[in-house]
Amino acid sequence: MLRWLPLLWLPLLQDPDIDALLKLLADESIAAREKAAAALVGLGDKAEARLKKEVAAAQGELKAKLEEVVRAIDKQRRLRAVLPVVRLVSLEAKDRPVKEVLEELKSKSGLPLDPSQVGNSSISVSVKEACPLEALDAVCRAADLEFLPEGELGWHDVDEPTKPAMRLRPGHSKSPRAFSGHFMISTSEIRLTQSLRFEEGGDPPPAGIVTLNLAWHPAAVPALIGSPVIRSVRDDKGNDLREKLENDRFDGYYSPRRDIPKSLDVEIQKPGAGATKIASLAGTIIILVETGATKVAFDNPLEAKGQTREYDGLTIKLVECVQSAGNLKIRVSISGKRKSKPKEEGDERSYGPSADNIEVKSEDGNLGEYGYSWSRGGEASTLTLHGFRSKPTSIIITVDREFHEEKFDFELKDIPLPK
Fold first, then answer.
1. pTM summary value
2. By mean pLDDT, which of 25-39, 144-158, 159-173, 198-212 is the weakest?
3. Could you tell me if 293 and 402 are in contact, meaning their C-beta atoms sit under 8 angstroms apart?
4. What burial class does residue 264 get, using C-beta atoms within 10 Å of its C-beta: 0-12 exposed, 13-18 middle, 19+ buried?
5. 76-85, 86-95, 204-213, 306-315 — which is least confidently predicted?
6. Which segments of the chain belong to CATH 3.55.50.30?
7. Per-residue confidence at 6, pLDDT binned at 50, 70, 90?
């Protein structure tokens, strides 16, 4: 009988009914409970209010399961705010005006395209179930256009700085590219040294640098980007260009500039004689998006010296808050040991406050005319706001951040070597 249960559940999960799913959530079968929980999470906001009512009345294991589903819905909502669901794109164009094709792509993908300057040429292109940037790249290759941002402007509209706009320009770079979800990685240049110096008995030094660019859909909001872990680099003669280098090196995370591609450098050895291209460069990049933050506040901070706040086994202390000579100096310490750990694979936590996530609120909104400086050592973080002539009303310290991890496995092929 149990082997036929999935067939009985199928209509419920295809056209979910909350009452039926709640009944399955108390089923004796673990598989039935898990399928019902997944379906309720999939309903999201539609089921959340009802679930919260059920939590209030439930007891024991059912109450715990309902609470777990409510937390999962909340987590999903926070994740989608910084990493929306990928809208796969299919389109067919045969001798159609490029502006018309771009408008269709804009509608289907959600990309904030600005096709006003692309001219009136016609293109033919076929895209099937592609992620947005991959579809855009296919259209741009067909029309000989480029969409990667240049310089500090990035994907921001000049007239409306807070409104993203992807402006297109003539001339596709033809660089090899790989895509995953909202993200794209490409090569921007290869720099080879003209001469090499070897230490006797030692390994050869890097002979060149391959610069990779990571770009993303403007709706995605990455918080931290890991340095690439390179699995292999081979030229078209079969030579391993990473054999003597540290293939698995991980240098930690970079904070990205919001709207320009992130540049990442990969060291390579000298290509073999007669090699004209890198046949394959394969690796992994870890991208973290922030799904939540916990903050503690000290109100009226000029009179709050020595006050403490407790969070998750940590003690956060306002060691100093002094205003003098037009500057505001804030020193915070953190001590103790966290009680909690990430509960699920793919979740990450950051530990402790640092000066770049100490927020200051003032009576007039002025946070200093001449910028800030900060330092961190041991348990203490110090932030100084220069030219601060207002009165601070509150200090807010981020003591915890929650991240979701996206793993981007990529392979770039046929990267031309400089002549």
1. 0.76
2. 144-158
3. yes
4. buried
5. 204-213
6. 83-174
7. very low
Pick the CATH number of 83-174 from 3.10.520.10, 3.40.50.12780, 2.40.50.140, 3.55.50.30: 3.55.50.30
Residues contacting 185, CB < 8 A, separation 6+? 177, 178, 212, 213, 214, 215, 285, 408, 410, 412
Q: What is the CATH number of domain 292-402?
A: 2.60.40
The closest alpha carbon to 38, from 1, 12, 57, 3, belongs to 12
Q: Distance (Å, rounded) from C-alpha 34 to C-alpha 40? A: 10
What burial class does residue 194 get, using C-beta atoms within 10 Å of its C-beta: 0-12 exposed, 13-18 middle, 19+ buried?
Answer: exposed
Q: What are phi and psi of 35, to 5 degrees?
A: -65, -40
Instruction: Give which of 215, 219, 180, 260 is closest to 79, Cα–Cα.
Output: 219
Strand partners, 210: 190, 266
Q: What is the pLDDT of residues 24-82, one digit of tens each?
A: 888 888 888 899 888 998 888 888 889 999 888 888 888 989 999 998 898 889 888 88
- In this structure, what token pair is assigned to residue 20? 């039926």
Q: Using alpha carbons, list the distances in angstroms from residue 289 to 77, 105, 219, 296, 415.
A: 13, 26, 12, 21, 30
| Residue 356 φ/ψ, nearest 5 degrees | -80, -5
- Order of strands, edge to edge, in the sheet holding 177-180? 177-180, 183-192, 208-216, 262-268
- Integer Cα distance of 213 and 229 in angstroms: 14
Q: Which amino acid is at 75?
A: K
